[in-house]
Amino acid sequence: MTVQTLRGPRSFPMAEALSAADRSALAAEQGPVTMSVGGVLVFEAGTGLEHARVLERVGQRLHLIPRYRQRLQSAAPGVTNPVWVDDEQFDLGWHVRRATLPGPGGLEELGELVGQELSRRLDRSRPLWELTVIEGVAGGERVALLAKMHHALVDGVAAVDIGTVLLDPTEEPLDLPAPDGPWEARPYDRARHLARLSLEPIVRGQRLLAEGAQRALAATDPRRATADLRRATELVAELARTRPQAPMTPLNRPIGPNRRYATARAI
Hints:
single chain, 4-stranded mixed β-sheet, 3-stranded antiparallel β-sheet, 34% helix
């Protein structure tokens, strides 16, 4: 991860901008639509996946995925795009959770819990991920891990990062020493961030003003311009009316806020 800095009396770590795809994922989360992705891993009990050990392992290796300690921040909500900043109130225990299935702890009970967790939106004031250790699977003979993260946090490759942090490819654990000293959040300076952002809108505004003046000078016939605009509006309206509708099938229904999780066994 690249961190940009401003040089001056004191070094200030700038926030990191979101990619266009990440901003799209945030914008798509409207109404009943949630943009969380997740996965469930089921293991035999007694393999070291107790909640306390999982919490410890994630804490030891979280430096490998620094984005998981960052949250969204907007310098001017509703005006500027959000950016990634270090969460100065980061609480690992809030993100690594624990749940127990009711008896008998079968696939039905597991699916119901997973569906409930994936129906709930992630808190945008915190880093956009959660990891739940699910006990009581198969009557206590197994334990499950539910990893949940926002699509803006990960892409198709990075989504496996939390699994890479926890799981080793062999029985011998990998030696992945953490940096010296405890992790410290880099402070976010809203005033400096706004000062830097203010430069771009000024340049853009000047450019739009010049382009608008050129269009105004080119429009020698206001009545013709008005007629062209009216015809364009009518064309768009006609296309909207004649747009083919999706066929009515059992899958073509309004999207609700709740999610269901089901499993199937193949032999």
